[in-house]
Amino acid sequence: MTTNPPLASLPAVAAAAAPEGLSTCALQQLDSAHYLHPFTDHAALRERGARVIVRGDGVYLWDSEGNKIIDGMAGLWCVNAGYGRTSIADAVHAQMSTLPFYNSFFNTTNVPAVQLAALLAAVSPPQFQHVFYTSSGSEANDTIVRMVRRYWQLAGRPEREVIISRRNAYHGSTMAGASLGGMAGMHAQGSLPIPGIVHIGQPHYAEGGRGMSEAEFGLEAAGWLEAKILEVGPDKVAAFIGEPVQGAGGVIIPPSTYWPEIQRICDKYDILLVSDEVICGFGRLGTWFGCELMGFRPDLIAFAKGVTSGYVPLGGVLVGGRVAHTLIDKGGDFNHGFTYSGHPSACAAALENIRILQTELLVERVALETGPHLKACFAALVAHPLVGHAETCGLAGGLNLVRRKGASVHDCEAFASTHAVGMLCRKHMFDNGVIMRAVGDRMIVAPPLSMTVAQIDEMVERIGYCLDLTLAEVQ
Ligand code: PLP
Q: Are 392 and 381 in contact (CB under 8 A)?
């Protein structure tokens, strides 16, 4: 028989017992020794040491060295209401004190999950009266793959299994999420995509629209969907999925002609239309959901992130009438679900978060005040020698760093080694108190929706300074 060693002889336990007293250096060493981070080169991280973020308030973060940083990425596109919302913490505390968890299997439910389902039906487009809860965007998209295929079985068309997505899309990191996504680097590491998922090009005007107006290119890019449907066979296609604005791909804003034409094609071939609103949902583009701005009517919406402003994990699928009625009326058991589907404490956080978005008119402010201000600021940054072009939509934006500017987006000369300049710029930003993300040499922002006009000015001033520092090194 073996005996357990005394607790005190376990170094990790001892360290975990006193995290408050740890220096930045000690935290970095423990981090490097034990913590595998998402999407991270760990050998490089070991050299640098992770930056330890310890506190957030409003649109600001503080690291363990006391540096104050303006968060241009809302955590990871999610802290829509901003940091330091004690009312969300209070709502979660109250719920945890009453009923921290109960499942929604076996004919049970809980109060916050029901209240949130009704509230989501109220804030989303009218076809959505039902929700299926998950804990993340990846799980939401996995659920969508299963739900779409189940729908077509019930509709008597089980051969409709193929889902069409887009290159450079991001739909999560689970097997189905990464397969739906169009990131070559993710596919390469896991024999992906799984069968039944195919991709078309992205509606990226700067990349593919040379010689065309934006409107013409939008129609051309939507036409790739019709070509793929005909190639696969219209009888085999179950659904098309896309982000209204591609976030992780680099804030790729499609021409205004794109989504209405996608809608027309989906209608023509009777294909389900899925909007991945994990980033665009809950106000990012100045509407509650991105499909409302882009002018299409999805059958399913994936959401996560902004539903709780990231305070606790929650995601889900808004299920439109067409799919919901088939599942409910013809379906019997849908053999799918997660332990934490409808987690009461997570739903309590979402209820309070949505109340904040509503009472502070944060979505309306993005549409009328902060979004237009960011657009004007980014347009002004195009005067900088390093910025070839800039685009924004609501409170999401991107700046392309180029070696030589041109008369149009298609005439700019890119840097020879993409990534290096973007990474350099991102480092200057972080070191100078502002967070932007680099996607290749495109610098992107998606700040909290609570960011004020004055704070946008402060962020853009710091961005300009860091562009100068970057320029000085690449000239
Ligand atoms: N879909 C989109 C559009 C996303 O941007 C993300 C995450 O960034 C996901 C899905 C995956 O969400 P999660 O990381 O919560 O699994």
A: no
Distance 18 CA to ligand 1 centre (A): 33
- What pTM was estimated for this model as a whole? 0.95
Q: How far is the CA of 292 from the centre of ligand 1 (A)?
A: 20
In the structure encoding, which two tokens stand for residue 331, read together? 């379906």
Nearest atom (ligand 1) to Cα of 276: 3
Digit-coded pLDDT (tens) for 181-236? 999 999 999 899 999 999 999 999 999 999 999 999 999 999 999 999 999 999 99
State the closest ligand 1 atom to the C-alpha of 248, by its place in the atom list counted from 1: 5
| ipTM for this prediction | 0.99
Spell out which residues line ligand 1, taking CB within 6 angstroms: 136-138, 141, 170-172, 243, 247-248, 276, 278-279, 304, 315
Below-70 pLDDT ranges, the chain: 1-20, 418-419
Give the distance (Å) from ligand 1 centre to CA of residue 137: 5
